[in-house]
Every structure is written in C-alpha cells, then in structure tokens.
Amino acid sequence: MEKSRNQRVQQELEERLKKPKSREDEVETLATLAWELRTNQPERSAELSLQTIQEAQSPPFEEVPYYKGLAAGMAALAFVNLQVGEMRLGTQQAIRALKNLQRAPDDKILVRILLTLAQDSFFLGDFDAATEQAQKAVSLAEKNDWPIEKAWAIGMLASTYGVTGEIEKALELHQTELDIFEAEDDIDGILRAGNNLAMTLYLSQNLDKAHQQITKTLQLGKKRGHKFDLLNIHCTAAQIEIDRREFDAAEEALYGAFSNAEVLENTRTYHIFVLMEWARLRQAQQEISKAKSYYLQSLVLAEENGQLAEQAHCYQKLAGIYEEEGEDERAEKYLALAKELGSELEQAHAAYRKDIQTAMLEKK
User: Fold this and answer.
1) How far apart are CA 22 and CA 60, in angstroms?
2) CA torsion 129→157→53→268, rounded to 10°?
3) Residue 360 neighbours by CB distance under 10 Å
4) How far is CA 240 from the centre of its chain?
5) What pTM does this model have?
6) How far apart are CA 165 and CA 81, in angstroms?
7) How many CA atoms lie within 13 A of 134 on its CB side?
C-alpha cells in the first residue's frame, strides 16, 4: 500500500529527530510530530507534546524558555485534551499556548492555536467566536499557501454552520474540505472530513446520502486502521442507522466503536457516548428496560469522569422514560437534576468563554 502524506511526514519527522540541526530544531520537530499525530495517535501525541514542553524549558532554555516550541507543544496538547473531553484542561492549555506565542510570533503555530481555540469555542457553544477563529485560520493558511491547515480550518467553519442551521453552506464547505484533503492524500483529514460530511447530511435528515458517505469513510478507516477516527466514524454510523431504523447495522457499528475504544488510553469518555447511543437504539426498538440500564451505566461513568453535559443528558432521558411509565415523582426529580447540572455547566462554559475572549483580545 502506498504511503499517505501523513505516513510520509511522520517518517520524515522521526528521521529528523535522530539528527536534529540544533536544540531549537529538535523542539520544533517534536512539536510538529505531536501535531501531526493528534487525531490518529492521540496518546503518543500527548506524550510528545509533554516532551516538547519539557525540552523547551530545559538547557539551554532553563532561564529563558524557547517560547515558540513551548507554544507549539501546548497547542498540540490542548487539541488532544479537547477531543477526549477534557474541556477545562484543554482550554487552559490553548490560552497558555497563545500567551507564549506572543513572545515569539509564528504564523503556522498561530494557525494551530486558532484551530484549537475554534474547536474549544465550538464545544462551548460560542459559535460566533468559533467562526471568527476559524476564519482567521483560513486567512493565515491562504496567505501562506498551506492547504492542509486551510482544509482543517474550513472544516471547523463548516461544522459551525452545520449546528447553527446553515446546512447548505456547511455541506459545501465540508465538500471543499474533503476535496483538499483528497488532493493532498491526507488520510487523517479525509477521515475527519468524511465523518463531518456524513454528520451534516444526517443533521439535514438526508439519511441515504449520510449512509453512503459514512460507509465510504468507514471502509477507508478500516483499511488504514486509524483507531481514534474509527471510533468517531462508528458512532456516526450508529446514529445514522438508528434513524434509518436499520437496527442490526446500528448495533454492529456500536460494537465496532467499543472495539476501538478498548485500545485507547482514555476510554471512559467514549464508553459513555457509545452507551448513550446504545440506550437510544434500545428505545427505538421499544426495549425500554435495556434503554434504562444503558442510560444508568452512562450516568455512573459520567459522574465518575465529572462530565456534566453527559450527566444532564442521561437524567433528561431517564426522566422521559419514567414519565412514560407513570413514575412522575422520579421523573420530576431527574428533570430537576438535569436542570441543575445544565445551569452548573453553563456557568463553567461562560467562564471558559470569557477566558478565551480575554486571551484573544490580548493577542490583538
């Protein structure tokens, strides 16, 4: 099998690390490798990011850190933490990356930080900020003729348009994103863009096209063996198949998600999501007792992991089930808990949004 751009770049960076031209070059190469591996090998990316941060403050940088490398390491680490659900930690690291970069400006690292902050703002529901940050990343990438960075930024824009109801614009941009990644033979990007395009088609309830797109993406992911992306792709496939009422296919996708979650270091976040989808599948099949069991399992894991949004979601769904079963007192209790968690979550998100806005203003 011919090597993809990602494999070629990884190999080149690994070789470069064996004989770096200087300490600065070593730190920058570590950071670039961490960034390249952030979606396909998140655990290794996190390790390399931490190594970058350490090396950027070790001799000869013990008195004056190598701020460019420090910012790059922080950006990669923040991205990984955000995509595994560590919102507070990811936000803090992204802001620290931006502050360190102010001491040693660099457009490519700034694009990485903007992409990370855009993803952060997206998860926090601040879609105006996510759009602004992604557009800035697009502009910088276009100015420097960086197609890969441009495609990632366009994908972030498209996702924002998708959740805010501008479906046609989102579909057009996701297709542009996918076209760029395919032209560059960037498998990580192709898998992410294909999954995003399928999800947007799903949101528009174009289920047949969504099914076709996710099937094509899943086949490529299996061929390449990308565990993290396969996890996301299987979850998207399950959502689509549940709504298509193809329950056997949905269950197969959920088993596929679990099989990939098992090999990841931080699996609890993904187990929660897959269990919640399994609960939705059982509800669609009118297997209510099994649906309750899955929601309760999800709730326990979400409480252990401190994931407020998932806890609120489970309480909300369980309240609906109990209401249908005539257990009004329990339903009201769970609705109250969901509302309380939602308020707590919004307060936390508001604080994170304020921190990001302050950091962006300081950057200007």
Assistant:
1) 11
2) 100
3) 18
4) 19
5) 0.90
6) 27
7) 24
CB 17 within 8 A of CB 33: yes
Find the helix packing angle between 308-324 and 328-363, rounded to 10°.
Answer: 160
Q: Closest by alpha carbon to 87, among 143, 31, 125, 54?
A: 125
Rg (the chain; Cα; Å): 21
Beta strands, E only, 213-254: none
- Nearest-CA neighbor of 293 among 263, 264, 314, 269? 314
Instruction: Please say whether the beta carbons of 133 and 153 come within 8 A.
Output: no
* Residue with the two structure tokens 């209401």: 323
pLDDT in tens, 272-324: 889 999 999 999 999 999 999 999 999 998 888 778 888 999 999 999 999 99
* Residue indicated by tokens 């396969």: 230
Between the alpha carbon of residue 323 and those of residues 302, 310, 334, the distances in Å are: 23, 20, 10
Q: For residue range 167-216, list pLDDT tens digits in order.
A: 999 999 999 999 999 999 999 999 999 999 999 999 999 999 999 999 99
Cβ count within 10 A of residue 213: 25
Nearest to 199 by CA among 154, 226, 238, 143: 238
CA-nearest of 157, 152, 148, 162 to 121 is 157
